[in-house]
């Protein structure tokens, strides 16, 4: 992965009269020129505070492509008079790392520090990541890593303990507009787009500044007499595919957003995230499984029909396939979002598991044990058992927990949906139990 404004070290091999891409020409020359990322670059933000105090620590930049990770690292080296070295974990192995560390040692002996920027640092395995540690600890290098993946999952705890993770965000529409205006100033002319087409162009970039500059370069090269509208722009440019990795952060971010939208009873938001995942190429069967989980976990006995709706939607998808079958899944997600919610069953299950773990091997009370042998009868198995069908109201009120165990109260239904009726039943049996044992 290259940076929003390219690799500055490649300039040395480029003839001075060679054409330079727009992204290269617009590369910021100071941190104050970087667009966006004020949450890390502002005066009171982490990097602003570090630079003001003259104490820069090792860093991990976590963020999507095209938001300026390499540019910021290069400018940090410039601000702190450190020698900037850039490597990519995709193309570098142990031999290349050894050369980098040896050169940094020599540089340090000569009185200059090294800022080592490692692009796609999560691609290094555990042993390779561990190789950075001694050089970080003795000050040979100041490590700045860049990753599009969650560092908590992809980087060693030892590396993370020695570096501060800074989150870089995708560029907003206002940031992309600022970048477009800089591009127009460099080109010396406005883009031949009306207002709607201009906004559509920014949206095509999907928060990626590098992608936007590439699109601008294409549009600027067109020979048109009048400003193009949105439809004309769409004919000339293919919409950029949304960033979505079915095994990475985007997958987990979007399914989390979908699940929480359902839990929050917002059918419109739930449909939006459902559609986003389908547009990203997600397997509808995975979504069908998740819907069934939502029915069990978040709706549960507040609406027992929800599980049936999800199972039928899943079966319908299997029979119809795409795209018609996805409509059944869409209807299921609407049903789930609008269904009454309860976590009482989920909480009761977890509490029961915790109690089972805590109480270990406590025996059931003897009166509810079968006695298939005379020896077991002599031991009191089954003695005193009250057959509920013979009791008044079909309820004996006997104790079914181990002797000596205080009666717990796991299941506490809520006043929503069908669980409102279950709550009445729980309270009814509690009163009968108290009466029978009074």
Give your account of this protein's structure.
Helices cover 50% and strands 6% of the residues. The chain has 438 residues and is mainly alpha-helical. β2 (83-88), α5 and β3 form a beta-alpha-beta unit. The protein contains 21 helices and 5 strands. The protein is elongated and about 100 Å long. The protein has a 5-stranded parallel beta sheet with strand order 2-3-4-1-5.
- Overall radius of gyration: 32 Å
Strands of the widest sheet, in order across it, are 2-3-4-1-5
Q: Can you count the helices?
A: 21
Largest sheet report: 5 strands, parallel
End-to-end Cα distance, whole Å, is: 74 Å
- Going by helix content, strand content and strand pairing, the class is mainly alpha
Q: Strand fraction band? A: 5-15%
Low-confidence stretches: 1-12
Mean pLDDT across residues:
89
Helix content: 40-55%
Q: Using DSSP, what is the number of strands?
A: 5
> Rough shape?
elongated
Give the topology string: H per helix, E per strand: HHHEHEHEHHEHHEHHHHHHHHHHHH
Can you lay out the helices and strands and say which pair or pack?
Blueprint (H helix, E strand, L loop, with lengths): L21 H4 L12 H4 L4 H8 L5 E4 L6 H11 L3 E6 L5 H16 L4 E6 L6 H5 L2 H5 L4 E6 L3 H4 L2 H5 L2 E4 L5 H15 L7 H11 L3 H12 L9 H7 L12 H15 L3 H13 L4 H16 L5 H16 L3 H15 L5 H16 L14 H5 L40 H18 L2
Parallel strand pairs: 1-4, 1-5, 2-3, 3-4
Helix pairs in contact: 10-12, 11-12, 11-13, 14-15, 14-16, 15-18, 16-17, 16-18, 17-18
């Amino acid at each position: 992965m290259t940076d929003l404004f390219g690799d500055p070290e490649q300039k040395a091999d480029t003839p001075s009269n060679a054409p330079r891409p727009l992204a290269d020409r617009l590369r910021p020359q100071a941190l104050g020129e970087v667009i966006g990322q004020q949450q890390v670059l502002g005066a009171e933000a982490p990097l602003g505070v570090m630079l003001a105090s003259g104490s820069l620590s090792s860093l991990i930049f976590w963020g999507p492509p095209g938001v300026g990770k390499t540019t910021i690292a290069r400018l940090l080296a410039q601000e702190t008079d450190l020698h900037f070295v850039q490597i990519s974990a995709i193309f570098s192995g142990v031999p290349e790392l050894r050369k980098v560390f040896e050169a940094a040692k020599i540089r340090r002996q000569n009185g200059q520090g090294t800022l080592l920027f490692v692009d796609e640092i999560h691609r290094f395995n555990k042993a390779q990541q561990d190789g950075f540690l001694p050089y970080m600890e003795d000050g040979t290098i100041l490590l700045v890593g860049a990753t599009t993946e969650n560092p908590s999952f992809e980087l060693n705890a030892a590396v993370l303990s020695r570096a501060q993770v800074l989150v870089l965000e995708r560029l907003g529409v206002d940031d992309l507009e600022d970048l477009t205006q800089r591009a127009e100033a460099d080109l010396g002319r406005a883009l031949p787009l009306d207002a709607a087409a201009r906004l559509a162009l920014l949206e095509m970039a999907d928060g990626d500044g590098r992608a936007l500059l590439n699109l601008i370069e294409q549009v600027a090269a067109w020979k048109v007499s009048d400003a193009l509208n949105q439809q004309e722009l769409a004919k000339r440019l293919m919409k950029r595919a949304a960033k979505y990795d079915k095994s990475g952060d985007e997958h987990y971010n979007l399914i989390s957003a979908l699940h929480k939208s359902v839990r929050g009873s917002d059918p419109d938001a739930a449909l939006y995230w459902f559609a986003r995942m389908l547009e990203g190429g997600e397997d509808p069967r995975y979504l069908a499984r998740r819907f069934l989980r939502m029915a069990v976990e978040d709706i549960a006995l507040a609406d027992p029909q929800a599980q049936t709706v999800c199972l039928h939607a899943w079966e319908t998808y299997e029979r119809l396939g795409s795209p018609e079958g996805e409509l059944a899944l869409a209807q299921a997600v609407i049903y789930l979002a609008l269904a009454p919610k309860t976590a009482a069953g989920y909480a009761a299950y977890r509490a029961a598991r915790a109690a089972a773990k805590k109480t270990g091997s406590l025996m059931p009370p003897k009166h509810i044990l079968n006695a298939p042998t005379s020896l077991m009868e002599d031991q009191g198995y089954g003695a005193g058992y009250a057959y509920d069908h013979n009791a008044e109201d079909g309820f004996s009120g006997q104790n079914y927990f181990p002797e000596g165990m205080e009666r717990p109260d796991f299941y506490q239904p809520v006043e929503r949906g069908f669980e409102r009726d279950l709550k009445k039943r729980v309270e009814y049996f509690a009163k009968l139990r108290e009466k029978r044992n009074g």
